[in-house]
């Protein structure tokens, strides 16, 4: 069996793009990679256990948290996902909220440098989660 080891791959015709073909589909790897993620315990001290491109975590109130990125996204049109477990139980949920936690949907839950979340228990009451997770995909500035 052959093996190739490398520390760097560079596209031949476009050094910022490496593509993968899967059947009839071709995808640019750079577009599909998460540009930020974090796993945090917001119930016992706002500890970030693992992260990429996250500089800090703000605690605004019970269930309301904001993740700040180290490197900014190119614009506010990037995809973010939040999930969690309510108070260490199997119930509850986490979602994106507006930047100032109004929940109205009038403002997106993200800017180029931050994303706001709201976490709830199984009864939809705000709750700090033992396992709050966030991830984001998009172009960095």
- Helix fraction? under 10%
Mean pLDDT: 83
Count of separate structural domains? 1
The tally of helices reads 1
Give the class from helix and strand content and strand pairing. mainly beta
Neighbour order of strands in the largest sheet:
4-3-10-7
Quote the distance from N terminus to C terminus.
Answer: 41 Å
**Elements, N to C (H/E):** EEHEEEEEEEE
| Shape by Cα distribution | elongated
Note poorly predicted spans: none
Evaluate the radius of gyration: 18 Å
Question: What can be said about the biggest beta sheet?
Answer: 4 strands, antiparallel
Multimeric status of the protein: single chain
Q: What percentage of the residues does DSSP assign to strands (E)?
A: 35-45%
The counted number of beta strands is 10
Task: Describe this entry's structure for a reader.
The protein is mostly beta strands and 141 residues long. Helices cover 3% and strands 42% of the residues. It contains one helix and ten strands; from the N terminus they run ββαββββββββ. Strands 4-3-10-7 form a four-stranded antiparallel beta sheet, with no helix packed on it. Strands 5-6-9-8 form a four-stranded antiparallel beta sheet, with no helix packed on it. A hairpin with a 2-residue loop joins strand 1 (19-22) and strand 2 (25-28). The mean pLDDT is 83.
Output the keywords:
141 residues; mainly beta; 1 helix
Topology:
Blueprint: E1 19-22, E2 25-28, H1 29-32, E3 36-41, E4 47-52, E5 54-61, E6 64-69, E7 79-85, E8 93-96, E9 114-120, E10 131-137
Antiparallel strand pairs: 1-2, 3-4, 3-10, 5-6, 6-9, 7-10, 8-9
């Amino acid at each position: 069996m052959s093996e190739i080891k490398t520390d760097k791959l560079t596209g031949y015709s476009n050094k910022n793009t490496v593509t993968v073909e899967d059947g009839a589909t071709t995808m640019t790897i750079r577009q599909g990679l998460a540009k930020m993620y974090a796993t945090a315990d917001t119930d016992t001290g706002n500890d970030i256990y693992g992260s990429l491109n996250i500089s800090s975590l703000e605690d605004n109130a019970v269930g309301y948290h904001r993740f700040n990125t180290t490197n900014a996204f190119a614009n506010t049109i990037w995809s973010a996902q939040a999930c969690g477990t309510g108070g260490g139980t199997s119930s509850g949920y986490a979602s994106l909220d507006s930047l100032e936690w109004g929940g109205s949907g009038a403002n997106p839950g993200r800017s180029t440098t931050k994303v706001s979340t709201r976490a709830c228990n199984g009864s939809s009451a705000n709750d700090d989660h033992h396992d709050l997770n966030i991830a984001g995909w998009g172009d960095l500035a």
